[in-house]
Amino acid sequence: MVPKAELHVHLEGTARPGLVRRIAARNGVALPEGLFADEDTFAWRDFLDFLNTYDLAASVIRTAEDYRDVVYEYLSDCAAEGAIYVELIASPDHARAVGLTEEEHRAGLFQGIDDARADHGIEGRILVSVVRNLGVEAAERTAAEAAAMPHPYVVGFNIAGDEAGFPPPPFIRAFEIARDAGLGCTAHAGEWGGPESIRQALALPGVTRISHGVRAVEDPALVAELAERGTVLEVCPTSNVVLGVFPDYGSHPFRVLRDAGVAVTLGSDDPPYFGATIGGEYAVAAEHFGLDEGDLRGVTETALVASFADVALKRRLLERLGSAGPAR
Length: 328
Ligand code: ADE
Ligand code: ZN
Prior knowledge:
Elements: E1 4-10, H1 17-27, E2 36-38, E3 41-42, H2 47-58, H3 64-80, E4 83-90, H4 92-97, H5 102-120, E5 123-131, H6 136-148, E6 154-160, H7 172-180, E7 184-189, H8 195-202, E8 207-212, H9 220-229, E9 232-235, H10 237-243, H11 254-259, E10 263-266, H12 271-274, H13 278-289, H14 293-306, H15 311-322
Parallel strand pairs: 1-4, 4-5, 5-6, 6-7, 7-8, 8-9, 9-10
Antiparallel strand pairs: 2-3
Helix pairs in contact: 3-5, 6-7, 14-15
Bound molecules: adenine (ADE) and zinc ion.
């Protein structure tokens, strides 16, 4: 099995309906109206409606133990598919909304990472995410809180939410705070915004990666610039197809970007919402984008090198990739 690494997955978005139901029952919380389409399917119509459903699911995740379980279940699933490293995009704003302190939130996240490593040998790290539609002040507050709480498991910073309605420029200060605190920076752009949104995200302090970035394909000069700068794209093909950014895998630009020399990695974004897994994304890359086993190992190598993990961990993971043996 090809060792895999994932740089783009939203933590609250990893919890499957069954886990959300178990957590709600344990907390004595009624399941929010409109959360599920049926027993095993979240209900959403389009991207903005998906963001609402995402918030509903996150609203039942209430305790440190809940967060631990969400992290543990997801990392365990990834390990079963051959993943050796996952960066989890975690949102202090969602935890705060249910009354958790950031200390409690983090205690759960870190326990999940430790337990998954102990049981399955997988490594996880946290990227603090702000939600752009909550506004600039909230983003700066969350960035400042992260900056004031350095921890070896908290390695990066991201901005998610409604890209079309909330473009990057006003968030410059939030990224400055994160970068100055030593956090690696990436930003959602080029999913619901075009090339201009990606250019604006590239201008944010500290940004070395773009979350999605796939609509760069609309502007060949930007594609060339991404390749030249070595900016790494966290590409989530199934998310893009299911959400309708591209109509099908055949029209997805993964291959075009890669062939133009852009560094591309694979992510599942919000797995149960889109029917994605990290193993599935590697399979999509093999089946639809023509990547062979060596190419897929290269994708993992790109992800490990671009990860915000510390140098020692990166070295260990790269060694593990090199010595992982032939495909199974
Ligand atoms: N939050 C969760 N998933 C997201 C996505 N694909 N884009 C922006 N914000 C998100
Ligand atoms: Zn995302």
